[in-house]
Amino acid sequence: MSFRTPLGRARGLGSAKRGTGHWLAQRITAVALIPLSLWFVISVMIYLRADYGTVLNWMHSPVVAVLLVLLVATLYYHAYLGLQTVIEDYVHDEWLKVSTLVLLKFIYILLAAAGIFAVLRVAFGG
Amino acid sequence: MASDNRPLSPHLGIYRWQISMTMSILHRLTGIWLSLGSLALIYWLIAAASGPDIYAVAQTLLGSWIGQVLMWTWAFSLFYHLCNGIRHLFWDAGRGFEIRTFYITGYSVWIISCALTVVAILFAYTHGSHP
Fold this sequence. Notes:
The complex is a heterodimer. Chain A is an all-alpha fold.
């Protein structure tokens, strides 16, 4: 039996480390995604069923290419931060948690790189 | 590890159900669902970069009935996560915690995200370019 207060027992068990950075990054990417995702949804509604030439023409525009790169990068960063929180909340086995997070990070960086490469390939292609 | 002995907050089971619980878990679920939807975005971009034949396959898949249903669930998820996310940003700024404001913004999120989904569907089927 311990006579220490809950605060006293929690104190010194480890700092928040980089929690503030994570929290801020999640909010800043969220703010950036407000205009980016709205722009993307409107674009999808317009171009999803257009013919290939129209879509390619749209993606050739420097403004569209830059916005698509920003969308993919910001979206995957935000999605990683969010899923990281979910995994940390529900996966309690330390080994499973860490390996899931590392695997998720690899997959997300791969997907983001592939998406950005696809955008650049169209943008710089003939 | 010593950090396993940290005091815990009360568990979910002791609370009466409130709409805020559904809204909170739905924020997570829509986030998870959207992160799966991002695969469709990457697939679409890669298909566009891979030539007309592969793009045509992607268009057929995304245009199939199951593709369309998925798209509208992602559209709703995005609008919900966006609207409720803005609500979260106001909370982060220390605003919107009054019970009355909390319920008004909560129901507004439902109404606005449903309305935006319906508008998006109507717009896509009436104004979107067709093959």
